[in-house]
Structures are given as C-alpha cells and as structure tokens.
Specification:
Elements (H helix, E strand, L loop, with lengths): L2 H7 L2 E5 L9 E5 L18 H11 L3 H13 L16 H10 L9 E5 L15 E6 L2 H10 L5 E5 L13 E6 L8 H14 E12 L4 H4 L9 H10 L2 E7 L6 E8 L1 H4 L1
Parallel strand pairs: 3-4, 3-6, 4-5, 6-7
Antiparallel strand pairs: 1-2, 7-9, 8-9
C-alpha cells in the first residue's frame, strides 16, 4: 500500500481538543493526515476570534453549563469568562503556574500590566499591586472584565494591537500574559516584545505563556500559533532581553518564559 493510500484510510481518531488552559474534551473527529500539507495561518489583529469565543460563552445555556454553574456557585465565589479553560484554583498545572509565576511577584508598592486579561481568570491574583494596567484591543472584553473586577487601582486600556497607550516608559515592575500569546504569530509577538521593552523597569520581570508546537496537543489545535521554545527564546533575546527561566513541561500544549532587561534593551 502506498503512503498516500495509507494516509487516506486513516480518517478518524479519538483526539483531545485542548483550549488555552489545557482542559481535555475527548471526542471522535475527522483527522487530516499529516502527510497532507496544510497551511494554518493565525488570524491578524483584526480577527474576531476572541470576541466570538466570548459571545459564545455569553450565549451558552446548555444543561451541562447550568449544572457546572450550580456546582461553581457552591464551591467557588464566581464563574466568569475564561474559567471554562481551567481554574487556577483547582487545576493542578495552573495552580503551579499561579504559585510560581504570579504570586511571588505581587507587591503592594509595585506596578503590573496584564495583556489579554479575558474575564479575569488571572487578573484576580494581580489585584494586590499598587497599580494594575489591563490591556486588550477589544473594548467588549475589558467591559466583561469590569463586570467581574473593577478596583480603584485598575486602569483599563484599549490598545491598537501591540502598544500600551498611557503607560509611562520604564514604569512597570511586572508584565504578565496567559492564553493570549498562544494565538499570536511571530511578527505580532515581536512587536509586543518591543513595546514591553519600553515600559518594563530595568529590574522588572515579564512572564509570557505561548504556543509550543513541539508538543502534540498544540499541533492538533488549529487555534494555536506556530511557535516553539527555540523560536520564542530567539525572539526574546533579539528584543534585547535576558531569559531568566523557562517552563517547558507543566503545560502539555504550551510553555512559559520569564525574562528581564538585558544590556541591549536598556541601551
């Protein structure tokens, strides 16, 4: 049997469809064999991908969702957009991420900035900063966040894709983004890194969660961008940063990188 014939006969498999937090959804689905070349290009900054996901969340009223909401009302203080991809309060890999990459950097005298906060899944752990910038290019998503968390120390910023309007240069101690960069292509990531370099303090820290296509669970997720630890490390270094830490094992479809200014980015 030829390779082409062999590939054509394998049309079904049990696949695990994983969203940004790594929650499994087992189902039978059609599988496009890897011997067939496909080009998956991430949507540009004008995409409605995140708005469509949010609107679907708002409209969803299935029996399963109502039951999950009832359980959440009993065991958790609030259910909001983003928790459907995993709650850092209960999901072990996200608990580890929270305790290693978020909580140690929260300081009542420091300033933080979060990129792509969604409904506040991670924002709730950043409220202890003296000032918190939350940045998104969709005003609707920031309004969703306001419904859940609206504190005097929060500044809601609608950006133009990769910038941080209104944030003073070299003023931010901590930059954090989870489940946002997994959807961004390299040129957009590079633009964001340039913007981060302009607002991060000399000894500040940045923590970015990104797509890792060296892992099978990212390879089968068409919404994840083409990125790997080697590519991400190269982009971070090219922007003048020094890599401080990498987590390549906690998440099975993505990785995390922590970095700070290097000599080149401070020049």
């Amino acid at each position: 049997m030829s390779i082409a014939s062999h590939c054509a006969t394998r049309r079904l498999l049990v696949a695990a469809s994983v969203e940004s937090a790594g929650v499994f959804d087992l189902r039978i689905r059609k599988f496009e064999p890897r011997c067939v070349q496909q080009e998956n290009r991430m949507p540009d900054l004008n995409t409605t991908l995140h708005l469509d996901m949010w609107r679907g969340y708002r409209k969803q009223a299935s029996f399963v969702r109502r039951m999950r909401q009832a359980v959440s009302d009993i065991f958790a203080p609030k259910d909001f957009y983003g928790l459907q991809w995993g709650d850092p309060e209960v999901f072990p890999p996200l608990q580890f991420t929270r305790d290693r990459y978020v909580r140690p950097y929260v300081h009542p005298e420091h300033i933080a900035l979060e990129i792509g906060p969604g409904g506040g899944r991670w924002t709730r752990y950043l409220l202890g900063f003296r000032q918190l910038y939350v940045v998104d290019c969709h005003a609707e998503l920031l309004q969703e966040l306001k419904r859940n968390f609206h504190r005097p120390n929060m500044n809601f910023i609608v950006n133009h894709g990769c910038d941080f309007p209104g944030v003073p240069g070299r003023s931010v101690d901590f930059v954090f983004s989870f489940a946002c960069f997994v959807h961004l292509d390299a040129p957009v990531i590079q633009a964001y890194l340039k913007s981060i370099a302009s607002i991060l303090k000399p000894n500040g820290n940045a923590v970015i969660h990104y797509s890792d296509k060296s892992k099978i669970m990212a390879q089968i997720n068409p919404n994840f961008s083409e990125n790997t630890p080697e590519r991400m490390r190269s982009m971070v270094s090219a922007a003048g940063f020094a890599v401080l830490e990498e987590d390549l094992t906690t998440m099975w479809h993505s990785s995390i990188i922590r970095f700070t200014h290097g000599p080149a980015s401070l020049a």
